[in-house]
Amino acid sequence: MTRHVIAPVDSFAHREIRHIEVDGKGICLLRLNDEFFALADRCPHGGARLSGGRISNTVESDGPGDYRVCRQEEMLKCPWHGWEYDVRTGQSWSDPKSTRTRSFAAETINGAELVKGPYIAETISVEVEGSYVVVDLP
Amino acid sequence: MNKQIRETDAAAQLKIIDCDIHPAQKSREAFFPYLEKRWVEHFKSFGTSIRQGLVGQLAYPRMTANGMRVDARPDDGTPAGSSLEMLQSQHLDPLNVEIGNLITLGGSGMEERNPDLAAAMARAANDWQVAEWLEPEPRLRGGIVVSQDVPEAAVAEIERRAGDKRFVQVVMSSRPNETIGARKYWPIYRAAAEANLPICLHPVGYSAGKPSTGTGWPSFYFQEHYTFVPGAQALVSNLIIEGVLEAVPNLKVAIIEGGFSWAPALGWRMDNHFDTFHKEVPHLKQKPSEYMKQHFWWATQPMEEPPNGRYVEDVINWIGWDRILYSSDYPHWDFDDPNFVFRFPLKPEQREAVYGGNARTLYGYK
């Protein structure tokens, strides 16, 4: 497991989605409130970059005229054919048994913790007083 | 879900010929520089013929805005497909597209009811393609849009462009006012064949005011999306049975976005009745499936996704690997990426044929 420092937390807005390249892998990194999520940035259905998609919800229904908006802002909708993935697990909403995009651990850590290492910060410098989003890749 | 076969490495080395790319106008005024003053004034005063209640909208709400890829909208708010730079950076460059065929749909005059306006719009659409797409980007090829229901204007437009290597086919509405094989349209087919240009038949989003099924309008976009299949079946069987392919024996037809997996079954079914029904159609000199094999080419998108990807291999074996054309449908939402489109490994010769060789043969690309 290698810890990669991606960016200062303050550089991400709520609901922002970014494509990032980490260790040769395309990662879709998104922020929802104070949480960060990292998924492999390739839709397992048709190959789109999920980072070009939109944050969405699920809608559940027990019958005509009855519906509930659920899992608000916890799904990521592919920009092409509209397949939806759970941002927490990468699991497909349409085909949960056999389709998922890989998810990676993403979290925020303050610079003071981070400078102890070990980590890889490829493009940014880490400052003790800052807060950073990090992704762990196997 | 069936697992896709990642062919990234092989496809990355392979140059792609994409047989379905849709350029869009930046705005309703985009054709004005290519229209005579009287038609610009007509546009401003009256607009085009109204085919449905919601002017400027598609008849069915798409699952994505206007049926476009969410990631294909330019940052400046102009429509998806209207930016050459974005087409280059998002599609042509990363997918190694050597040649891309433009199919101009909306606002191109095919579905316009005012005959003179239809002809003017088609001509403008073709001049617009040259000036804004074909001249600046030599990887792109145009399709001569014609106003098929004004056949004399359509023929004149084909003759005007014939010999211009930037145009590689003739694009007409797949929902013309009469059935596609009607004799009214034969002069268009003769002119296309004379110019050695295939006819391109692609579904039209506005339906030309006609219901997409024989029993009227479906209730849901879910079905509307699949009406492309029976629509294309009607085109193929009508061109064959009306006798177009006997009258114009060197006509080539590209069925784009109409599917292909149904083609073998349609051929079998028509052949089944050929012996018993033949006296009704003595102008047919061979079995319908023979006309299909000789005159038709089939684009891949939207690719079938059966539970076992290899079923598609069987279907293409029946059709012939020399007749399948890769198409992406960029920038529409149901875009097919060449690296993911086949759910089974292609043999090298199959890959070469589908991603380029067959289009080279059909369109005369070197």
**How many strand segments of chain B?**
8
Extended strand count of chain A: 9
Interface with most residues:
A-B, 18 and 15 residues
Helical percentage of chain A = under 10%
How widely separated are the two ends of chain A? 4 Å
Beta content of chain B: 5-15%
Provide a count of the helices of chain B: 13
- Average pLDDT taken over every residue of chain B: 92
Q: In order across it, which strands form the biggest sheet of chain B?
A: 1-2-3-4-5-6-7-8
Amino- and carboxy-terminal Cα gap of chain B: 39 Å
Low-pLDDT parts of chain B are 1-5
**Helix and strand pattern of chain A:** EEEEEEEEHE
User: Strand-residue fraction of chain A?
Assistant: over 45%
Helical proportion of chain B?
Answer: 25-40%
Structural class category of chain B: alpha/beta
How would you describe the overall organization of this protein?
The complex is a heterodimer of chains A (138) and B (366). With 138 residues, chain A is mainly beta. Chain A has one helix and nine strands. In chain A, strands 1-9-8-4-3-2 form a six-stranded antiparallel sheet. In chain A, strands 5-6-7 form a three-stranded antiparallel sheet, with no helix packed on it. In chain A, strand 2 and strand 3 (25-32) form a beta hairpin. The longest helix of chain A has 4 residues, at 111-114. Chain A starts with a strand and ends with a strand. The mean pLDDT of chain A is 88. Chain B is of the alpha/beta class. Helices cover 38% and strands 10% of the residues of chain B. Chain B has helices spanning 8-13, 37-46, 84-92, 115-134, 151-161, 186-194, 221-226, 228-241, 244-247, 263-277, 288-295, 310-319, 348-363, and strands spanning 16-21, 97-102, 140-145, 167-173, 199-202, 253-255, 296-299, 324-325. In chain B, helix 6 links the parallel strand 4 and strand 5. The longest helix of chain B is centred in the middle third of the chain and has 20 residues, at 115-134. Chain B is globular. Chain A binds chain B through residues 44-49, 52-54, 77, 79-82, 92, 95, 98-99, and chain B through 1, 4, 63-64, 69-72, 333-337, 339-340.
